[in-house]
C-alpha cells in the first residue's frame, strides 16, 4: 500500500535467502541489498525481521547472528538513500531494542475488532449478495484473526460461491473458511525508516 501510494516499486527481502551457514556471507548479502537500495529508489520490506534482529542479550544468542544484526544496524545508520525501509514482525518482544531506535516511526497493529472484521468482509465481498449472512456466527469465527487472514477467508468464501454457481455467499462457507485460518499470537509491529 505504501509503495502504491508513493508510486514506487516494492521489494520484499526474503531473509531465508539472505542467511547462509558461511561466516560473513550473510552480512555481505545484506551489503548487496543496501547497495541496491541506494541505486534503485523503492520501498524495501524486511518481513519477519525478528529472524535478523533478535535480542543480542538473549540466552540462546549465537555469535554469527549477533554480527549480522550489528551489520544490519550499521547499514541502517549509514543509509542516506531516497528509499523507504520497512521492517515487520509479529514478535516485537524478540527484537533487539537498538533496532527500534533505527526507525523513524514504529507502529503497532492490533487484531481487528468486530466492527473492523465486518467492514473487511463486506468490502471483500462487495460484488456478492451478503444480506443473508449471520454476522454473530461470522464474527465469532473470525475472533483472533489478523486483517490479512480475514481477507483470505473472505476471498476463499467468494471462490466457493463462484465455483458453486451462486451469487449469494453462505454463512456456513464463510464460517468454515474463517475457522480454517491460523490464529495470530501477537500484534504486528512495523518500523519505517
What is the level-2 CATH architecture name of the largest domain?
3-Layer(aba) Sandwich
| Main CATH class of the largest domain | Alpha Beta
Q: What is the general shape?
A: elongated
How far apart are the first and last residues' alpha carbons, in Å? Answer: 16 Å
- Count of discrete domains: 2
Q: Count the strands? A: 5
Q: What is the CATH T-level topology of the largest domain?
A: Rossmann fold
Strand order of the largest sheet: 1-2-3-5-4
For the CA atoms, what is the radius of gyration? 20 Å
Largest sheet: 5 strands, mixed
Beta-strand content estimate: 5-15%
Structural class: alpha/beta
Would you identify the regions where 5 or more consecutive residues have pLDDT less than 50? none
Please give the count of helices: 9
Give an overview of the whole structure.
The chain starts with a helix and ends with a strand. By secondary structure, it is of the alpha/beta class. 47% of the residues lie in helices and 12% in strands. The longest helix is centred in the last third of the chain and has 17 residues. It contains nine helices and five strands; from the N terminus they run H-E-H-H-E-H-E-H-E-H-H-H-H-E. Helix 4 links the parallel strand 2 and strand 3. The chain folds into two domains: 102 residues, 3-Layer(aba) Sandwich (Rossmann fold); 67 residues, Helicase, Ruva Protein, domain 3, CATH 1.10.8.60.
Amino acid at each position: 500500500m505504501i509503495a502504491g501510494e508513493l508510486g514506487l516499486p516494492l521489494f520484499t527481502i526474503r531473509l531465508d535467502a539472505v542467511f547462509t551457514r558461511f561466516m560473513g556471507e550473510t552480512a555481505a548479502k545484506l551489503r548487496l541489498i543496501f547497495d541496491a537500495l541506494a541505486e534503485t529508489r523503492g520501498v524495501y520490506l524486511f518481513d519477519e525481521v525478528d529472524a535478523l534482529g533478535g535480542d543480542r542479550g538473549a540466552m540462546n544468542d549465537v555469535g554469527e547472528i549477533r554480527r549480522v544484526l550489528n551489520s544490519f544496524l550499521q547499514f541502517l545508520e549509514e543509509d542516506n538513500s531516497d528509499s523507504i525501509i520497512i521492517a515487520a514482525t509479529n514478535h516485537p518482544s524478540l527484537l533487539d531494542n537498538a533496532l527500534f531506535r533505527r526507525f523513524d516511526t514504529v507502529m503497532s497493529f492490533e487484531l481487528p475488532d468486530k466492527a473492523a472484521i465486518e467492514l473487511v468482509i463486506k468490502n471483500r465481498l462487495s460484488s456478492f449478495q451478503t444480506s443473508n449472512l449471520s454476522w454473530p456466527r461470522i464474527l465469532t469465527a473470525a475472533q483472533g484473526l489478523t486483517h490479512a487472514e480475514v481477507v483470505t477467508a473472505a476471498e476463499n468464501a467468494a471462490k466457493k460461491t463462484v465455483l458453486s454457481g451462486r451469487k449469494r455467499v453462505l454463512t456456513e462457507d464463510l464460517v468454515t473458511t474463517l475457522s480454517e485460518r491460523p490464529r495470530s499470537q501477537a500484534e504486528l509491529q512495523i518500523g519505517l525508516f
